[in-house]
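Example for tutorial group B:
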């Protein structure tokens, strides 16, 4: 039943990772290389384009629409395209962005505008660093609480909670960056999560040196990771 639930979660397009966001919108933040007072009058999504050109008419086509925008941020609602560009019409010029890609989350991009050119400067975690901090913090708190309860019932010294915290500080960013930049947050994430769960279980078993069996360590790791996956994901979604 647990395996079935995991498969359903990770094969869905809205699949979350540990304390991760869900897909329902795309957010683009804009910075300017030099002070710029021109107003952003219109913007639109291009998702039918070729190397030779694209439709820049700024019509809201299908289910893809700009829900809100200003000079510093843009939000796309409903069906976020897998690949898209933006047309930004300023009072004195038009800027077409490089190709942006849906990254399996609430898609986030950051752009740097220099004159009539746009450069993608999205962080490696594909979200704001502050948002990633929320995800990491939520994962740490949830898993430490679960491990703390288990250690208390098994009379394992509380100092070993440091092991759980250290493992998360290592595995969480590795998993997140790998998923955000290589595998995506789709069905392949189940294998990444499985690897992380196994690594954490074995590390806990070895470091606790006889205070916990390998089977118990694996069960504990599964409960911790599944809890941070579900509870942490919703916490992130509410704060995103």
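The residue assignment follows.
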């Amino acid at each position: 039943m647990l395996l079935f639930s995991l498969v359903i979660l990770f094969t869905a397009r809205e699949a979350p990772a540990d304390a991760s966001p869900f897909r329902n919108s795309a957010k683009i933040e804009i910075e300017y290389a030099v002070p710029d007072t021109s107003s952003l009058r219109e913007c639109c999504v291009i998702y039918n384009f070729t190397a030779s050109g694209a439709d820049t008419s700024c019509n809201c086509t299908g289910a893809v629409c700009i829900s809100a925008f200003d000079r510093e941020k843009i939000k796309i609602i409903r069906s976020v395209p897998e690949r898209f560009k933006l047309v930004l019409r300023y009072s004195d010029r038009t800027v077409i962005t490089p190709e942006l890609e849906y990254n399996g989350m609430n898609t986030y991009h950051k752009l740097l505008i220099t004159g009539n050119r746009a450069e993608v400067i999205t962080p490696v975690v594909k979200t704001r660093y502050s948002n990633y901090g929320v995800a990491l913090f939520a994962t740490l708190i949830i898993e430490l609480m679960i491990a703390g309860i288990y250690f208390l019932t098994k009379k394992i010294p509380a100092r070993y909670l440091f092991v759980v915290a250290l493992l998360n500080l290592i595995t969480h960013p590795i998993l997140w960056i790998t998923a955000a930049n290589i595998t995506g947050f789709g069905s392949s994430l189940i294998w990444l999560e499985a690897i992380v769960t196994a690594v954490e279980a074995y590390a806990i078993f070895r470091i606790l040196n006889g205070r916990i069996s390998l089977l118990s360590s694996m069960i504990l790791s599964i409960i911790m990771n599944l809890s941070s996956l579900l509870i942490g994901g919703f916490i992130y979604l509410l704060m995103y």
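The chain has two domains: 2-16+127-239, 25-120. Compare this with the pattern of hydrophobic and polar residues in the output above.
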